Amino acid sequence: MSLIKIKFWHYGIFVTALLSILLGYHLFYGDKRFFLTGQTSYGHYQIELVCSSCHSKSFNNKDDIQEACESCHAKELDRMNDSHPKNKFQDPRNAPLLAQLDARYCVTCHTEHKPEITRDSGVTIASDFCFHCHQSIADDRPSHKEFAFDSCADAGCHNYHDNSMLYEDFMLRHLDEPWILKHATLPARNNLLRWLKKNRDVQPLTEQDHNAPDRLTETAIVEQWSQSSHATTAVNCQDCHNEKVNKAPHWNLTDSCIDCHEQQAEQFKQSKHGMRLGLGLTPMTPTHARLTTQTSDQAMTCSSCHNPHSLDVTEAAVDSCLNCHKDEHSLNYKQS
Fold first, then answer.
1. The predicted structure's pLDDT at residue 140
2. Of 266, 263, 257, 260, which Cα lies nearest the Cα of 304?
3. What is the distance between the alpha carbons of residues 324 and 301, in angstroms, rounded to a whole number?
4. Is the pTM of this model over 0.85?
5. 74 vs 149: CA distance, rounded Å
């Protein structure tokens, strides 16, 4: 072996050892984003360092990738009555459409780690993709003749996965009414009324009925609780502040809520606010967000939006959002 070859051999060993040390450090101690092939989308960035949440096995083909996508999103799509389900495109009559756009696979439109082509909702194809299948829409619906194919979703009319808000009967019924009402109204939340009808024997609790320890009693909190739906449904202090919660880290207060609100807690864990908890990670904090937020290390749990003592759903619908979301768009809402 010549001297030059020996030098290159030693150099190769040195480079290999250096790379091994560098990769090993980042794998066990450093920033795991070092291994990302590209920035993740807004929907996945909170869990981007838990590669196994998507990459549970090697992706040998599109079907493996589709299985990974559906492991999290299949129930959600089914719940919203997906208007473009996979089985629609398994119909042989739609084969010509698939030749233009293979809508059987999520990754046809959503390709992760491609920030240079990723738009809103993680879409990574041209915004006029509706054209591939609906190019003759104006023949059937002359009212659509003047619309561009990249405006289907932007105009607020169509959502690829969920078009359930297009209620033509509703539009016809209210055709002669003003476009904007003088006073906006929402239907009353009647979950509590339904519960009370089913539990007529339950007696509401009063301020004097609370069972919080004396050392923790605060008049304002007890007063809030006594006027809340918790007191109305006979949920006392120690029903939530129980031994399980007292022994757990603070962010596990969500575990107390799930005892009664199982469905809501599961939906929360599937959302962008709670998805880290759904994977057994520490909760998201506003400082982790890519959007402009108020600087805060507050953990995102049920009580971040819902005051467990007053349970004011109006506050949770707006003011709780603005506690974190301080961007111009959010702050303009109250003046809209």
1. 85
2. 257
3. 13
4. no
5. 27
**Structure letter (DSSP) for residue 334:** G
Q: 223, 216 in Cβ contact below 8 A? A: no
Distance CA 165, CA 311 (A): 29
* Burial annotation 129-141 (CB, 10 A radius, 16+ → b, else e): bbebbbeebeeee
**Residue pair 275/73 in contact by the 8 Å Cβ criterion:** no
Contact (CB, 8 A) for 237 and 212: yes
Q: Name the percent of the chain lying above pLDDT 90.
A: 23
Residue 47: which residues within 8 A CB-CB, separation 6 or more? 53, 275, 276, 279, 281
How many helices (H) and strands (E) are present in the chain, helices listed first? Answer: 18, 0
Query: For 295-333, how does the pLDDT look when each residue is reduced to its tens digit (9 = 90+)?
Result: 667 788 888 888 888 888 888 889 988 888 888 888 898
Q: Cβ contacts of residue 206 below 8 Å, gap of 6+? A: 226, 231
* Residues contacting residue 238 through CB under 8 Å, at least 6 positions apart: 211, 212
Buried b / exposed e along 319-333 (16+ C-beta atoms within 10 A): ebeeebbeeeebeee
**CA-wise closest residue to 299 among 311, 286, 313, 308:** 286
Instruction: Give me the residues paired with residue 325 across strands.
Output: 293
- Tell me how long the chain is: 336
CA distance 34 to 26: 7
State residue 21's pLDDT score: 77
Tokens of 242: 């129980």
Amino acid at 306: H
CA–CA dist 254, 261 (Å, integer): 10
Q: CA-to-CA distance for 227 and 312, rounded, in angstroms? A: 10
* Alpha-carbon span 144 to 312, nearest angstrom: 43
Average pLDDT over residues 69-80: 89
The Cα 41–Cα 107 span in angstroms is: 13
| More confident of the two residues 181 and 283 | 283
Q: Which residues contact 263 (CB under 8 A, 6 or more apart)?
A: none
Both structure tokens of 237: 């202090």
